[in-house]
Amino acid sequence: MSKKEMDIEDLPGVGAATAEKLREAGYHNLMAIAVASPGELTETTGMSEASARKVINAARNNLDMGFVSGEELLKKRETIMRVSTGAKAVDALTGGGFESGGITECFGAYGSGKSAMAHQLAINALDIDENGDPQSYSIWIDTETTFRPERIKQICEQHGLDAAKVLKHIKVVRAFNSDHQMMCAEKVEDLITKETLPVKLLIVDSLMAHFRSEFVGRGTLADRQQKINKHMHVLLKLADTYNICVYVTNQVMSKPDTFFGDPTEAVGGHIVAHASTTRLYFRRGKKGTRVAKLVDSPYLPEGEAIFQITEKGIEDVA
Asked: What is the pTM of this model?
């Protein structure tokens, strides 16, 4: 017989006030507490280190570790939703569109179409019914002031959609530094659980801009990677727990030691690369087109697709 999972208040030494502090700090369930360090809980709640260890051990002892069979995972995969990119070629490349339950990272030089794709996805994720009413929400964490409501309005007008209704269902927050960006991502859970918004898409545009500007030089690299690792795991948890499609854009750098082929590489190193479920490299093509190259996927083969950016949004090349 399986154990009934405890609430946070059921843990020894955790009263209502301490439980509230834990939830405010992002520890909403036993799993979050079980994987925390005593130092983190001490800093968050003010409890002694001995009490923090006692709480963590109790959480671990009463936690359902979540082992499931492959058959159950297959059934869970059947609930995966896909957000169309607007271009059939790119949808085919990504197995039917950008999928929920994971992170899709698109990296490329400026002007390669990353933010243009974000605007299109923000509309396509809204599940607009035959009456023109959106059924879900898109969240946009904007780190480089790239969101343009006028662009959303332009795409809507080209497709006969009510721009006012669409814009009401796209929630945008401007992140001013890396800490603010991380906090915004953590607050998305409140929008889903407390405000009961049916969120289908979370956009971070761009992922590494603040981290790059704030952590300069090799001496800060370890601290930067630690923070970006935590940020990526928050995004992954949101994607998995609430079946959300997470779309992040990323900047690039040029590798000076590459003598043959394309020297372009995404910033963020292995941490971003490993945390991203699907990775796409965008670059400019001929005659104003864009090329999307599938670089990494758990189950899809590498390949390329051509698309274009028009007044209607993201489209196939005729």
From this structure: 0.82
